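A further point concerns the way the authors explain their paired sequence and structure data. For illustration, here is how one protein appears when written out as sequence plus C-alpha cells:
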Amino acid sequence: MAHLFLVKDIAFQAGLSTATVDRVLNGRPGVRGQTEMRVKAAIAELEKQQAGAMGSGRVLAVDIVMETPQRFSDAVRAAFEAEMATFLPGVFRCRFHFAEVMKPAELVQLLDRIRLRGTHGIVLKAPDVAEVAAAVVRADAAGIPVVTLVTDLPNSARIAYAGADNRAAGETAAYLIGEFLGTDGGKVLVTLSSGRFRGEEEREIGFRRVIRARYPAIGITEISEGHGTDAATGTLAAAALAADPAINAVYSIGGGNRAVFAAFDAAKRPVRVFVAHDLDADNRALLAARRIGFVLHHDLRTDARSAFRAIMSRATALPRTVPASLSSVEIVTPYNMPAGD
C-alpha cells in the first residue's frame, strides 16, 4: 500500500497500534477487512490534510502558552519542535510563551493579546478558572482553535485535549505505592504545583480513591501551591516532614523533586518509595541515581502531534474522521528508561 507517511502517524490517525498498521501496509495475513479500510481511510485523511495545507500556501502559526516550571517547558518545546519536522516543511511555526508562575489576569491578558494579533491556533496549559475559560471562548469566537495540553479545561470552548488520562495515572501511582508499602502502611506526601490545574486535581482524585479503597492503612498528607519550583516546594515539604514523622513515601504530581529529596535528607528521613511524573531532565537524573522508583511517563510528541492535527483540521476546513485519543501512560524504572531526544 503506497504512502508517504510515518507508520506512527498513520496509526495515530487510524486509532490502531503501529504493529497492526505495519501488518496492513506490508500485506501480512491475519488482518480483518475493516482494519484495512481504517488504515486506507487514515492515509486518505492525511493526504487531504497535507494537500489542504499545501494548496492554501499558508504557514500555520501556533502559539504554545504554558504556566509551568522550566524543566517541563523545556521538554514540551523539544517535543513540539521535533514534531514540526515530521510535517511538510514550513506547515507549522511555533511561538512559545512560557512562565513558571502567572496570575490568571496575566494569562488572560496574554491570550487576548494573541487573539488580537492573530494566530492559527493556541495550545494551552493553564489553570481551570473562569477567567481563563472566558478567554478561550473569545478566541474560539474569533475563529482561533484552542487545544488544551496535559491539563484540561473541559467546560471551555477548547476543540480538543492533548494529554494522558490523569485520573488513571493517579490510580496507577496509588497501586505502585500501595503494593510497595504493603501492610506496613505509612503516609504518602502528595505534592501538587497548584490546586488550580484540572489535570493535577484529577491525578489526586484517582490516587486518593484507590488508596482509600485498597490500602486503608496508608495515610496522605498534601502540599500545594509550590508551583513546581524548587524553593517553594522544598519549603512546603520541609514543613510537612517536621509536622508528621509518619511520612515515608512521596507521590509527586507537581514536581520540584530535587527539593523534596533535599527536605528528606535534611530531616534525615528515608523515602521508601517515590513516584513522579514526566521524564524531564531532573527526573531522568533522579531515576538513574535510583532515588525515584517509578516515573509515570507519557509521550509529549504524541500530544504535540494530536494538537497539530486538530489545529490543521480546523485551519484547512477538513473534518476529523478519528477523534484524538489520550496518550498512554508508561511506568518507567531505572531499567527501561528511554533514551533522551
